[in-house]
Amino acid sequence: MRKKIEKSDAEWRAQLSPEQYRVTREKGTEPPFSGNHRVSDEHGIYHCVCCNAPLFENEHKFDAGCGWPSFDRPLGKAAVEERPDDTHGMQRTEVVCSHCDAHLGHVFPDGPPESTGLRYCINSVAISFHPGE
Q1: Is 97 marked active-site?
Q2: Residue 129 — φ and ψ, nearest 5°?
């Protein structure tokens, strides 16, 4: 098993923008439709902005109309971890990077029925796109 990447708050703050820090380290959420990752046919992989771990393939991205990048599956079972989240009076499933525990977003059972039926609703500031990978 791979050892988790651990850094102090000061190290994370020095590495990340204030919005990236708020979302990934403090479990925040960016406003809907504020991100810059749109659905495209370009081949590539989305990585964690905190540790650069590969998380999602662009081929599994879809337009859910919710205002955040949505994927029907992670890159692999080891890419992300899912945890219960009962904050804000809701029962949801949080999605975090399995390598550094960065908060990425949540997963919901309302994705495309023709694939996994899941919608990994991910904050765009938590991921970076690497075209051609």
Answers
A1: no
A2: -90, 130
Q: Considering 50, 97, 100, 121, which one is annotated as catalytic? A: 121
Output the DSSP codes for 39-100.
--S--EEEEETTT--EEEEGGGEE--SSSS-EESS-SSTTTEEEEEE-GGG--EEEEEETTT
What is the tens place of the pLDDT at every residue in 67-88? 999 999 999 999 999 999 998 8
15-65 pLDDT, tens digit each: 999 999 999 999 999 999 998 877 788 899 999 999 999 999 999 999 999
**Does residue 70 or residue 1 have the better pLDDT?**
70
CB count within 10 Å of CB 127 equals: 25
* Angular region, 61: left φ>0, alpha ψ -120 to 50, beta rest: beta
